[in-house]
UniProtKB/TrEMBL annotation:
Protein name: Deoxyribodipyrimidine photolyase
Needed cofactors: FAD
SUPFAM superfamilies assigned to the protein according to its UniProt record, in alphabetical order: Cryptochrome/photolyase FAD-binding domain
Domain Cryptochrome/DNA photolyase FAD-binding: 75-194
Record's keyword annotation contains GTP-binding: no
Pfam families, per the entry: FAD_binding_7
GO cellular component terms attached to this protein's record: cytoplasm
Gene Ontology MF term list: deoxyribodipyrimidine photo-lyase activity; DNA binding; FAD binding
Residues at which FAD binds: Y30, F75, D172, G173, D174
Keywords: FAD, Flavoprotein, Lyase
Cofactor stoichiometry and binding remark: Binds 1 FAD per subunit.
Matching Gene3D superfamilies: 1.25.40.80, DNA Cyclobutane Dipyrimidine Photolyase, subunit A, domain 3
Length: 371
């Protein structure tokens, strides 16, 4: 299916092209330029989020090219953030859907500023980024933080619905990373709020804009009323356009391997003859809806898995309908209803459990690197 009609795809779905993208990483340049809108970022996040590749796989590939950890520690840290957010989700479960550490304050609404959704914030770099976001399903990481800060800390919107809006459109949607990062910006998962003024955005987005509601000293933010441009809010109920349910063919002599939105690894147990089923549970997508572009991206990526079949329905329905016995799947916080043999994901480090701060987690991880 055509994911980006009449466009050169920013995110190809062929596995060989994805692996080539890993080989093209410049981890040193990444560390020095990643904060800039045109920095040497990897564009690997959609493939990591969908489980096509792992953070461990990326790290090992860079190390095999002869780089030493001391040369690209910032790059390793950024990969580790992804594993960290997942560990928080595993430990806290549905608690990440609410203010995790602190109550966000002040909150005047549980919607999203209409100016964000309609691309009319008046901040040139932000409006350009949102327009491209709707086309590509991607935001630079720092732009995500700018938008979250504008929405929560200036627009006084509670973080959750705007985080759902972003997740809905992201090709690299990872609910743990998304929800907990929004909370981090809003002060609900951190000790202080994240703020970015116009000068800061100008520096990293290469703009020279002045006289905006962000064109103030940082000391002014604590007393700032909601800017007029952010005062109107909007709310839309998101729905996931899943494909229609169709029958799958099951060989009763073979085990069944379950894939899902967070596990599309084409190399997983590829040497074993098995029924390979991409399970799309409506209940999951009702709670965490995604856009058609994201659905199509997932389905296109799944084509890298030989013999994959798509089943739309709940896990228990699949088991009953096809009398499945030997079932295998990769662990994930959204898989708690699965029954069968659970296998671990490929983590970068053997560090598990809840850490209240990333740097507590990172301190343990760093000990496993050979400097």
């Amino acid at each position: 299916m055509a994911l980006f009609e009449n466009e050169v795809p920013l995110f190809p779905t062929d596995y060989k092209e994805i692996i080539q993208r890993i080989h093209n990483i410049d981890p040193v340049k990444y560390g020095s330029s990643r904060n800039f809108i045109d920095g040497a970022v990897t564009y690997l996040s959609p493939y990591i989020s969908r489980g096509v590749i792992s953070t461990k796989q990326v790290l090992e590939s860079v190390l095999e090219r002869g780089y030493r950890p001391a040369q690209f520690e910032k790059f390793i840290q950024e990969l580790a953030w992804r594993d960290y957010w997942q560990q928080v989700w595993i430990a806290k479960g549905d608690a990440i859907n609410s203010d995790l550490k602190n109550t966000q304050t002040p909150v005047s609404n549980h919607e999203i500023p209409a100016a964000i959704v309609s691309i009319k914030t008046g901040i040139e770099a932000i409006d350009k980024a949102i327009q491209e976001f709707y086309q590509t399903g991607y935001f630079h990481n720092h732009v995500r933080m700018y938008i979250a800060a504008i929405t929560t800390n200036m627009g006084q919107s509670h973080w959750k619905y705007p985080a759902q809006w972003m997740y809905y459109h992201l090709l690299d949607g990872d609910w743990a990373s998304n929800a907990l990062s929004w909370q981090w910006v809003a002060g609900a998962n951190s000790n202080k709020k994240y703020l970015a003024n116009q000068d800061y955005i100008n520096k990293y987005c290469h703009t020279q804009q002045k006289n905006t509601f962000l064109d103030v000293d940082y000391s002014a933010f604590s007393k700032m009323e909601i800017p007029e441009i952010l005062s109107e809010t909007t709310f839309e109920k998101f729905t996931t356009p899943l494909p229609s349910k169709s029958a799958v063919r099951v060989n009763p002599q073979c085990s069944t391997f379950i894939y899902n939105f967070y596990n599309l690894d084409p190399n997983w147990k590829q040497e074993t003859e098995a029924n390979r089923i991409l399970l799309l549970e409506p209940s999951i997508f009702e709670q965490y809806p995604i856009s058609k572009k994201s659905v199509d991206f997932m389905l296109d990526l799944s084509q890298n898995i030989e013999g994959i079949q798509v089943y739309v329905g709940e896990f228990d329905e699949l088991v009953r309908e096809y009398d499945l016995d030997e079932i295998c799947y990769k662990e994930h916080p959204l898989n708690t209803n699965y029954k069968g043999i659970e296998e671990s994901r490929d983590w970068m480090f053997d560090v598990q459990g809840y850490f209240s701060s990333f740097f507590g987690f990172w301190k343990k991880c760093k000990k496993q690197l050979k400097y």
